[in-house]
Amino acid sequence: MDLTMRKMIGLILFFIAIGMVLMILVHNRLVGLIITSLLLFVGYNCFCDGW
Question: Burial, 32: exposed, middle or buried (Cβ in 10 Å; 0-12, 13-18, 19+)?
């Protein structure tokens, strides 16, 4: 596994952890679902060069 793949996996795991902490702090499931959907959309567009 090359270095860029390790960095990408590390970044993904870091943001998963941030998301888990955010969901602990946000007690409303609807707000959490909206935030998660928005971040998934932005992340997909950034990763696939959609913008």
Answer: middle
Whole-Å CA distances, 7 to 4, 10, 11, 37, 48: 5, 5, 6, 24, 17
Distance CA 36, CA 23 (A): 9
Here the tokens at position 39 are 């971040």
Amino acid at 19: G
pLDDT tens profile 1-47: 677 878 888 888 888 888 888 888 888 888 888 888 887 787 777 77
